[in-house]
Amino acid sequence: MLVVATITIAVLAAVVAALTVGIVAVRLVRTMQRRRRAALAEGPRRALLAFVADNGEEGADELVAIDNDAWRAAEPAATALLGKVRGEARSALADVFQRRGAALRARRALRDRSPVRRARAAELLGDLKLTEAVPELCDLLEDRQPDVRIVAVRALGRIGDPAAAWRLLASLDRPDPTPSLLVTDAMVQLGTEVEVTLSAALDHPQARVRAVCLDALGLLGATGTVSRVARVLDADPSLDVRVAAALTLGKFGARSGVPPLTDALEDGRPVPLRATAARALGELGAASAVPRLEALLDDGAYRVAHAAAHALRRLGPVGHEALRRAATTGGPAAAHASEALALIAIGAGPADADEQTMAVA
Amino acid sequence: MTEEWIREILRVTDIGIFVYFLVLNTSYLVLIVLASQEFVKHLRRAPFAGADDMFRSPLTLPVSVIVPAYNEGTGIIAAVQAITALRYPRFEVVVVDDGSSDDTFELLRDHFDLVAVPRVVPHDVPTRTAILAVYVARGNAENLVVVRKENGGKADALNVGINVARHPLICMVDADSVLDPDALLSVAKPFGDDPLRVAACGGVIRIANGCTVVGGRVVDVRMPRPWLLRIQVVEYLRAFLMGRTGWSRLGGLVVISGAFGIFRRDLVVRIGGLDHDTIGEDAELVVRLHHDLRERGEDYRVVFVAEPVSWSEAPSSLRVLGRQRRRWHRGIAEILSKHRRMIFNPRYGRIGLLALPYYVLFELLAPFVELGALVLLPLGLWIDAIDVDFAWRFALVAYGYGLLVSLTALLIEEVSFHRYPRFSDLCRGVLAAVAENFGYRQILAVFQVSGAWSAWRGRQAVWGTMQRQGFDTADEGETITPGMASAAATGDVAVDALVDPQPAGSQPASSPVASPPVAPPPVAPPSVASQPSADRS
Q1: What is the model's pLDDT at position B509?
Q2: Cα–Cα distance, A153 to A190 (Å, whole number)
């Protein structure tokens, strides 16, 4: 027993000493590496900044000629610039990356065994907005690693090729789906050309897909789909989808959205739907909905009454007048109306009334 | 014959204690190794984590940041300014003034031009005290809300904040915390990346004492001067950073500090908000969340992000430290007692079979074993149950292993985040890892045992107030080093954790690590050194 303890003490002492030396060594090595990298990157970084400041008109050849060690040291800065600059400077910088073979290497790396390399490659291809890489990035939407799929979604959004629309939507319909908000964001970046796809996908059997399509249509302002969205609001079997449809109609701001939203306020409909419909009517600017919203101020469901009050707040003088009337009645309606009137009095901006209606998932 | 029996029992007990500490330190080491794997993963993915995309996206989930405040006049303005300046696309700040007796509210009102609004607040989660008034900033009505309420304690203040919160994610932040600019983006990101499963996310707490804070931002990270604080820096690294990251990787995270944690509001509302009667209300919330989600059979995750961080003041006097640790350990005892049916219950998966039993064995009981060893080892020597050669080897192995665990944590910190840029601070960290074995752990064990004992005796516990100087009371541009000047350092602190019947409802001092439980440190029996718990809140 004593011998074992003695040996253990000796081992522990050796490991403790090694760890202490290791801590110091890590610090020294990192300091040296950082200095070396900083020295190597100094020239290229200056050249990069001058190149971008010049809108990429001069200096491309010099950047392409930088030796590999120095470019590697400056690459994080160059990649960051790629994500920050716009217009000609961005295109010129992307061209430099391509001439250095970065795009080719990245496309090859999409099939690398390491998920980190695959994701890094997808990120770079997105930054380069390389349309040719869209099919490979679409394949990456089925990668076994969620992290890689997420990067692929974002990259496809940045590239903005509508050809990726169906594949992006399909990535939502799997046991381990890509995150809805990221896909919505990407779909919006694909532009108005995907409206037809989004509208068609409103018949998709997966509720998550339908909800994403509605959100994207709303952000794209696809007012041509009002009647289609109204049908979803009325008849979709999923409450989340109907709530998304109500929000979308509010974002459209089209008068034809008022009747379906007003219908959605009816008693007996689910509270989240009624609250969202009230909020959407305010966002839409539907003065004709004032009487209905005014009646809702007395609703038993807090969220509905609250949303109605803030919708009236957004509806300008007609809505404000309704609030003033309600404020004199007493009871819950007066309380909600008083809150909204107080905000009007201080000139508060349009409220995102009760955003708890937004589903996290 | 009886003497022989006693000798034999003592000998076996001492060996048992020795084995206990070997297992305990090994468990810490395992958590640290798991944490290091997570750090590697995190750092390799940082370049394509998409923080900028998240910041630019109109779809990023909005967050309500709830800041409970009780007598925080010294630092409240800087704190709220710093929080409102966080890099996040859409969020509101809800400050809940829990009946402060100082000028906390007046300062807020004057600085942010607050105006009263007759807000109708829903009763989504229960509260025990009345809201006196709700105010909004005249120029920023949608993004800054201040609630004045009667004093009711931290849990009550947070519950009021939850009711007032408008957004689907709620982030609880202590009024004395200093957040890194991207902190909110980082803790909210898991909800965007894995929205179907992530239920809560905790952020890491580091010690701000010694650091330079300007405009509500830590701009220069340094080791504090007092050794008591330096030891806590090492302890936080090991327990908060490594321990919780390790548990997160194991899928068994049961503690998210109230100083910096983010939750899905709908889930918190569903389980009734924070428990008014538990002193470790933030950890209890997480355990209850696990309980509810497991009972419902939902697929979910409670995760932890190691970077960026929230910086908090740590106690710089032994008296305050004692109160804090008593409170924390009391919290552990209360939570484990309240949720005892989950322990070793396969229905609760890794939480019931791994995490909670671990907390019982290696967090709750560790200080008892340590103190037991402090008594039994000398006793064993005295009655010849063990010999001197065994005793000193026993002590060296136990302390040496503890030191090894701490140094491993320091090495991993140095390899991964290396937040202390000065070489001298690095050396001080190593020395602090050695120093904590001599007195610090043993004293903590006494505090912890006292805390657990109070819980079991059912004594009423109340958070106290902790008067602070604040991080940035100086003029703009001037810097101060927080901990050094804090009232806590001078002992002018009124935290009162466990003194019998307390004045009702005092607030959690937003203590340096205003959160709770779990984890006690170390244990270092006289002959058996151990490591500070790998996890605590």
Answers
A1: 36
A2: 11
pLDDT along chain A (361 residues), means of 10: 83 94 95 92 89 84 88 87 84 90 93 95 94 96 94 96 96 91 95 95 94 95 94 93 95 92 93 95 90 93 94 93 91 92 82 48 44
Contact B97/B148 with Cβ under 8 angstroms?
yes
Do B193 and A116 lie within an 8 Å CB cutoff?
A: no
Residue B150, pLDDT > 80, answer yes
Q: For residue B232, how far is the Cα from the chain centroid?
A: 12
- Could you give the percent of chain A with pLDDT greater than 90? 71
Give phi and psi for A315, each to the nearest 5: -90, 10
Contacts of B393 in chain A (CB under 8 A): 2, 5-6, 8-9
Rounded to whole angstroms, the Cα distance separating B106 from B127 reads 24
Contact residues, chain B, for A343 at CB < 8 Å: 117, 136, 141
Other C-beta atoms closer than 10 Å to the C-beta of B534 total: 31
Interacting residues of B146 by C-beta distance below 8 A, sequence separation 6+: B94, B95, B96, B97, B105, B108, B109, B112, B114, B134, B135, B136, B137
Contact assignment for B48 to A184 by CB distance below 8 Å: no
Q: What is the pTM of this model?
A: 0.86
B378-406 per-position pLDDT tens digit: 888 888 777 788 888 888 888 899 999 99
Lowest mean pLDDT among A327-341, B118-132, B303-317, B503-517: B503-517
- How far is it, in rounded angstroms, from Cα B74 to Cα B467? 8
User: Which residue in the block uniquely carries the two structure tokens 């509810």?
Assistant: B292
Whether residue A30 lies within 8 A of chain B, CB to CB, comes out as yes
ipTM over 0.95: no
Task: List CB contacts of A298: < 8 A, sequence separation 6 or more.
Answer: A305, A326, A331, A332, A333
Q: Which residue from B194, B196, B400 is facing A9, i.e. has the nearest CB?
A: B400
Query: CB contacts < 8 Å between A and B, how many?
Result: 155
A130 in contact with chain B, both atoms CB, cutoff 8 A = no
Number of residues written out for chain B: 537
- Looking at the predicted structure, is the pLDDT value of residue B49 above 90? no
Rounded-to-integer distance, Cα A129 and Cα A158, Å: 6
Distance from CA of B160 to the nearest CA of A (A): 16
Helix (H) or strand (E) holding B158, with range, is helix B154-164
User: Is the peptide bond between B346 and the residue preceding it cis, with omega within 30 degrees of 0?
Assistant: no
Contact indicator for B464, B506 with CB cutoff of 8 Å = yes
Confidence check: pLDDT of B471 > 80? no
CB B514 within 8 A of CB B251: no
Residue B75: which residues within 8 A CB-CB, separation 6 or more?
Answer: B175, B176, B468, B469, B470, B471, B472, B473
Closest C-alpha to B437, from B353, B298, B532: B532
pLDDT in the model for residue B14 = 82
Residues in B touching A19 (Cβ below 8 Å): 404, 407-408, 410-411
Q: What is the DSSP letter of B465?
A: B
What are the CA-CA distances from residue A37 to residues A43, A72, B18, B463 (Å)? 11, 9, 48, 51
Other C-beta atoms closer than 10 Å to the C-beta of B318 total 14
Contacts of B116 in chain A (CB under 8 A): 342
- Is the CB of A3 inside 8 Å of chain B's CB atoms? no
Could you give the CA distance from residue A32 to residue A44 in angstroms, rounded to a whole number? 19
In terms of phi and psi (left: phi > 0; alpha: psi -120 to 50; beta: otherwise), the region of A160 is: left
pLDDT in tens, A148-187: 999 999 999 999 999 999 999 999 998 889 999 999 999 9
E-strand stretches of B244-379: 260-264, 301-312
d(CA A111, CA A91) in angstroms, rounded, equals 26
Chain B residues with beta carbon closer than 8 angstroms to that of A346: 115, 117, 136, 138, 141
